[in-house]
Amino acid sequence: MYRVARPSLFSFLFASNSSAFVKRPSGKPVSTTLPIFRLSQVWSALSLSLLSVPSFAQSEPNNELERYTVTAIRPYYDETLSRIFPQYEFDKRSLVSPLHTNDVLLQSPSVSLNGQGGQIQSISIRGYSRWRIQTLLDGVPIVSDRRAGSSIGFVPPDFIASASVLPGAASTYLGSGAIGGAVNLHIESAQRPYLMVGYSSNQQLKAVSYAGTSATAASVNSTDSSGITDWNISYRSADNGEDANGNPLLDQFEQTGLFLRHRPEDRIIKEAWTLYSDNNDIGKSSSDFPESRITTYPKNTHWLGKIAFESHLFTGNVWWHKSRLDTSVLRPESRINDSENEAFDYGFNINKDTHLKDWDLNWQWQVSGREGVVADEREFTLTPAESASPNVTTASEITNAFASELAYEVRTLDASEINAAAVVDASHQWERLSLALGVRVDWQHQSDDSIASTPQSSDAQSNTNVSGYLGANYRLSPYWAAGVYVSSAFRNPSLTERFYAGETPRGTVLGSAQLETEQALNVQANIAYSGEQLQGSLEFFSQQIDNYIERITVEEDVLQYANLDSATIDGASYQLSWQSSDSLLDARLSGMWISGEDNSGNSIADIPANSQRLDLGVQWQAMRLFAVFAYRASKTDIAEGERALDEVFTLDMGVDWQLNERVQLQASWSNVTNQQYYTSADDKAAFAQGESVQLAITYLL
Predict the structure, then answer these.
(1) What is the percent of the chain where pLDDT is above 70?
(2) Of 110, 306, 533, 621, which is the most exposed, with the fewest CB atoms less than 10 Å away?
(3) Which keywords appear in this protein's UniProt record, sorted alphabetically (predicted)?
(4) Is the CA virtual torsion 455, 456, 460, 462 positive or negative?
């Protein structure tokens, strides 16, 4: 009923990925993965409470169930980490299209919104954000030169099936960008062609997507060796929304996406896929709008892909990502600053697993790089036009009301980097004890290409770092297990932090070629329970960072990146899941408490407020009803560039109804009580959207 494909380097490292699930008439998912070790039942049960098969199968009556072949692509080191602590995957079971891709990640208690809002809103993991967390799309790293960090908003949510979250230092496997953790989005594989149409009332958001596949019952059972191809096309557009008080938000956007994947049969190449996303007229939802600044992203394009291959000696991947982001910052009655950012990222790896006596050993070789990382900036001065109206408010009206004149044009960044790394890990299972350890040796070279530089010049920087981890898990009883995980991590300064010099919405920002690499030590302990109907885990974590990099004010409206002494983040998170014996009721309770400060006792930026969340679900015949209760505590310990937050309680609810074997109806009501609250503690963050109704209909073709 299933087959397991060979692993890929940047596929991710979660135990739930290593399991294939099929739907039985009882309605309960059943793991078909061969047991890795005795504790696997504990971790599988934890993951099981959060996983679901596609919603078509979930809501179908038992006598209409269809059976599909499930392919589970798992990284080789998934097995290693799954031995020492629980891992989770989050799907869209309690979400209704159209939605934001971040909504899938926010189901994890470790994930919070960060920075300013809009379509390219970024996130934090346990208080780490910006360049300190790694975002991946089906294993392909998403790197951004924005200080806010990479955003997955360019990925149409309809392309995403689920997301994995790894909190804590993960540099050993994922390198410099994962000092605070990582998330990996898993691309959906259409089992049958379908057409989906959606609408959201707050932004007047319209969404339509079409997914198709060459896989049919006839082709699966035939001797055709051409393989299977699937694809997805999505179009979404939205106007500016409103907060709870009816004030306008600058969160408009237009998005077109295309995804194409081919899985050959009996070939060295096991999978090849590509994704293209074109995004236009994206608004940056900020408290500066519209009086002080109006920031938009006129164009944001991404083209990326991956090829996975396998031989009898090793497996591996080749990937690439070409991106462009245009930014326009309008200061009414003053000036316009436009910038264009481009980059080409690439990488490949080979990896192999082996055995040494009773130990499982894995190794991999990684090479990645960034070329043509360029930022061009232009400034225009504004003078009132004769036809100017005194009551103009929108960006286009202001631009038309003023005559613009080019003040200067300059290249603010032109740089590149190359990275090579070797990774080795080992694991062993005794009767009750599991042990895993790994080490990474990493070399990176960065250069400023805007001048004639050589590897020996002061404008070229090379760094060699070593990171590693050690973890253990002990089975206390058939239901209880406890584990500990210690890991070191590093983060090399980004190309922007080293070489950028230009204008941003917060003023002039200067890089520093003399920045030191951030170094971190992460310690976490967990205890997990797995019963027949109840599963859960509690985690305590502490992470210290030395050479913490932050922007500091050197003079009025001028900031520069600099190393601070150190910072520490401490906290605890939990997840508790329950499902009734008849699978008609389910609930999940999760939350996080967190604090962070530097070595002088001052609060550091991007630490989210404490939060708790309760997800409830009811399955009634072909209908699933769900509700999400979320509580965010107040936050008064703030850093420079932040504002205090009041506590807020929000409620979302929805229904998913399988009308018949072809038609699926969905409806939801978000922010039911129309709460007015800021999306994050950033002092430029705008209010969240007010109440909104989402509707969607999916038709199986």
Answers:
(1) 83
(2) 621
(3) Cell outer membrane, Membrane, Receptor, Signal, TonB box, Transmembrane, Transmembrane beta strand, Transport
(4) positive
| Beta strand 534-546 pairing with 21-23 | unpaired
Q: Which residues contact 4 (CB under 8 A, 6 or more apart)?
A: 20, 33, 71, 72, 74
Please, are residues 416 and 372 in contact by the beta-carbon 8 Å criterion?
yes
Mean pLDDT of 86-112: 86
> What's the confidence (pLDDT) of residue 216?
63
Task: Give the number of domains in the chain.
Answer: 1
Q: Measured between alpha carbons, how far is residue 475 from residues 177, 526, 528 in Å?
A: 33, 12, 10
The pLDDT confidence band at residue 397, using thresholds 50, 70 and 90, is: low
**Which residues are bridge partners to 420 per DSSP?**
367, 443
Query: Rounded CA gap, 291 and 332, in Å?
Result: 7
Residue 284 contacts residue 250 (beta carbons within 8 Å): yes
State pLDDT tens for residues 106-120. 999 999 998 888 888
Q: How far is CA 197 from CA 104, 122, 158, 385, in A?
A: 19, 26, 11, 44
Query: How buried is 295 (Cβ within 10 angstroms: 0-12 exposed, 13-18 middle, 19+ buried)?
Result: buried
Max Cα distance, the chain (Å): 84
C-alpha distances out from residue 497 to 204, 250, 297, 515, Å: 38, 28, 21, 8
The DSSP secondary-structure symbol of 39 reads T
State which amino acid sits at residue 174.
L
The angle subtended at Cα 443 by Cα 440 and Cα 445, nearest 5°, is 155
Distance separating alpha carbons of residues 262 and 225, to the nearest angstrom: 12
Alpha-carbon distances of 696 from 95, 259, 341, 577, 668, rounded to whole Å: 11, 21, 35, 28, 9
Q: Read off the pLDDT band of 578 (50, 70, 90).
A: very high
Taking the whole predicted model, whether its pTM rises above 0.90 is answered as no
pLDDT value of residue 382: 85
Nearest in space to 247 (alpha carbons), one of 678, 653, 681, 594: 678
- Rounded Cα distance between 670 and 654, Å, is 8
Cβ neighbours for 254, distance < 8 A, ≥ 6 positions apart: 236, 237, 238, 279, 280, 281
pLDDT, mean of residues 644-656: 95
pLDDT of residue 584: 94
* pLDDT at residue 54, rounded to an integer: 34
How big is the CA angle at 227 (ends 221 and 231), to the nearest 5 degrees? 110
Half-sphere exposure of 672 (CA within 13 A, CB side): 12
The strand pair at 359-384 and 648-658 is best described as unpaired
Looking at residues 661-689, what average pLDDT do you find?
93
| pLDDT for res 398 | 58
CA distance 62 to 618: 17
Name every residue whose Cβ is closer than 8 Å to that of residue 333 and which is 6 or more positions away in sequence: 382, 384, 398, 402
Quote the pLDDT of residue 288.
Answer: 85
Q: Is the pLDDT of residue 356 over 60?
A: yes
HEC per residue, 569-627? EEEEEEEEEEECCCCCEEEEEEEEEEEEEECCCCECCCCCCCEEEEEEEEEECCEEEEE
C-alpha 389, offset from chain centre? 43
pLDDT digits (tens, 9 = 90+) for 36-59: 333 333 333 333 333 333 333 333
How would residue 12 be classed by pLDDT, with cut points 50, 70 and 90? very low
Query: Which domain covers residue 123, as residue numbers?
Result: 2-700
Over the range 177-208, which residues count as b (16 or more CB within 10 Å of their CB) and which as e?
Answer: bbbbbbbbbbbbbbbbbbebbbbbebbebebb
Report, in angstroms and rounded to the nearest whole number, the Rg of the chain calculated over CA atoms: 25
Q: Which helix (H) or strand (E) holds 80?
A: helix 78-81
